[in-house]
Structure formats: C-alpha cells, structure tokens
UniProtKB/TrEMBL annotation:
GO terms for cellular component: endoplasmic reticulum membrane; Golgi apparatus; late endosome membrane; plasma membrane. This is Protein Star. One of its GO terms (biological process) is endosomal transport. InterPro entries: EGF_Rcpt_Signaling_Reg (IPR053202). Keywords: Membrane, Transmembrane, Transmembrane helix. It comes from Rhynocoris fuscipes. The lineage of its organism: Eukaryota, Metazoa, Ecdysozoa, Arthropoda, Hexapoda.
Amino acid sequence: MDQFYIYVTQGGLYVLFLIYLSRWLVDNIYLKEHHNMTTYCSNHINSHSHKCLDHFLNSDSILDSDKDDLSEKLQMDDPSLVYNLRNTLIYSKNPQYIEISKYSKAQFRELFPLLVKSVSNKTNGFFIEFGAGDGIVNSLTLPLEQRFNWTGLLVEADPRFAAHLHRRGRKSLISSTCLGYQPTSFLGLFGINNYGKSKLLTEDWETYHTVEQMTCFPMYTYLLALNRTNIDLVIIDVNDKAVDYLTLPFDKVLIDVIMIKYLNYNDLAFLSNFMEQKNYETVGIKEKNSFIVFKKMK
Ligand SMILES: *[C@@H]1O[C@H](CO)[C@@H](O)[C@H](O)[C@H]1NC(C)=O
Ligand SMILES: *[C@@H]1O[C@H](CO)[C@@H](O)[C@H](O)[C@H]1NC(C)=O
Ligand SMILES: *[C@@H]1O[C@H](CO)[C@@H](O)[C@H](O)[C@H]1NC(C)=O
Ligand SMILES: *[C@@H]1O[C@H](CO)[C@@H](O)[C@H](O)[C@H]1NC(C)=O
C-alpha cells in the first residue's frame, strides 16, 4: 500500500512539473513573441504588412485570452482598451478587384446615389461601417472604394462574415469585433442567426442558434484606435435600436454624414430627435431599405 502512495505522489509531482513547464513556455516564448508582434503591428496599422496579418490570423486563441482581460468595464478612452482594439485592425489577405455589379442587390444600387449625394460626390474620403456584412453583397462602401477612391474601417462581429471580409479583398481595414451599446467596454453575448440577422443580445437569446461571448467596444474607442476624430461617413447597421449605440462624445468628434439602418417607425422617431439635438439634419430616408441619412449642419 505504501508503495502505491509513493507512486501516486511521484505521478502528481510529475504532472505538476509538466503543467508548470508548459505555462512557463507559453508565458516566456509564445506570449512574449505575441506581445512583441502586437506592439510592432499596432505601430504599422497603415501598411499592408503581411507579417502582421499572418500573425493575427493564426493567433485566434491567444487573442481570445487577451480579450478576457477586457471583460471588466473600461472607459471608452481608456488607453489599454484603445490599444487592444487597435491590435484588431488589419487589412484583407487578398486585395483584389471585385466586380460589384455582379453582387450588389438592386435595392442597394438605388440607395447608393443618396449616399453619394449626401457626401457631396467626395473622393478619397474615410468611412467606418458598423455591421459590414461580407463586404460585397449589399455593401455601400465597396462602390465608394472603387468609384470614389475611399478607404475606411469595416467592423463585423459575425465570424462567418468576418471570414469573408478577410478573403474577399477589400481595400479598407477590417476589425472582427463587437460594437457595444454602453459607454464602456463589456462582455457581450452575440447571437449568431441566419445571415444578416445576427446581433448583440439584450434578451430573447434563446431564439438564436449560436451565442458567442465577446468583448464589445464603444463607438468612440474605434475612432481613437484609428487615431482619427474626423470621419466623412459612419454607417450603422446593427439589427437593433441604433440610437443606443450612438454613445459618442459628439463634442469631440467631427463626423460629416451618419447613415443608419432603423428597425421601425418608433426607432426612426427616436433617431431623428436624437440627431437633431446633436445638430444633424435629415438628408434622406429610403423606406424600402429602412435607411436614414443625417448630415452635420455647418
Ligand atoms: C520584435 O519584433 C520585431 C519585428 O518583427 C523584430 O524586429 C524584433 O527583433 C523583435 N524583438 C524581440 C525581442 O523579439
Ligand atoms: C455629383 O455628381 C453628379 C453626377 O456626376 C452631378 O449631377 C451632381 O451635380 C454632383 N453633385 C455635387 C454636389 O457636386
Ligand atoms: C486614392 O487614395 C489613395 C490613398 O488611399 C491615394 O494614395 C491615391 O493618391 C488616391 N488616388 C487618387 C486618384 O486620388
Ligand atoms: C495620431 O495622429 C496625430 C496627428 O494626426 C499624430 O501626431 C500622432 O503621432 C498619432 N499618434 C499615433 C499613436 O499614431
């Protein structure tokens, strides 16, 4: 019997040693290299660095463990929050020309002229699109890139769409993260449903096929991560009451045009009131697509 306990104790110590060794290897080699790359890549967000891209695409699990550190609520301008979000900004793996007319649905082709008019035919502008989908079908920013030489940031939390964005070759930055409806970061539940119907959950999450936990960032943190407070166009398509997501400090940013997908007439009334108080006028509503466009008054 004594011999048995000695074996158990020795075995236990051996296992403990292996656990300790693997943790040490992760901390000292894997994570050190990862953090070095993170620092390097966040200082080079404006270059198409494939070294960074490959690193981030291959390190999902590490990024996930980093995300856990952000589950506590951090203020929208918290430097560590901004730093972490900046590290998610990367370019597409295969930049290539995409034939838009083949993909874009007719009703979106109707919406595009309203958008172009709202930005006064501007060329070389900069946009942020929240809820970018797969970046091709129904994308309003793809023709802006191609015909008006715009660039910007595509934000998409649904991992299936985000994978498309990386493959399809948009010219803009991509962030597969979750826009939140609080002025702080928080750990949100993102419900993944039929294509185009996924959303950040507040209740009724039983109806979703898959629910994924992810860190959600306030809108302003995206602007700070880009180091940019002047934006020509922000598009918000979040399958939810958009006004809740407009947690921006409007006195600190200059956004010329804001285009929002609304849910229903109630939502539309809320939005118009809210935006009027922020000194925006309505320049167009397309009922067929449930989009409203606001422009900052001079
Ligand atoms: C960190 O990464 C940069 C860029 O890849 C590299 O030049 C540098 O040697 C690395 N430093 C360490 C300590 O690994
Ligand atoms: C934008 O371009 C269209 C077509 O080229 C033109 O008809 C329109 O007047 C332009 N609008 C502005 C504000 O420049
Ligand atoms: C298009 O935009 C890029 C920057 O994104 C700029 O370098 C280039 O000069 C622009 N081209 C034209 C024709 O304005
Ligand atoms: C942010 O932009 C400003 C001016 O546009 C520049 O001076 C500053 O170095 C930038 N900071 C970072 C971290 O890129």
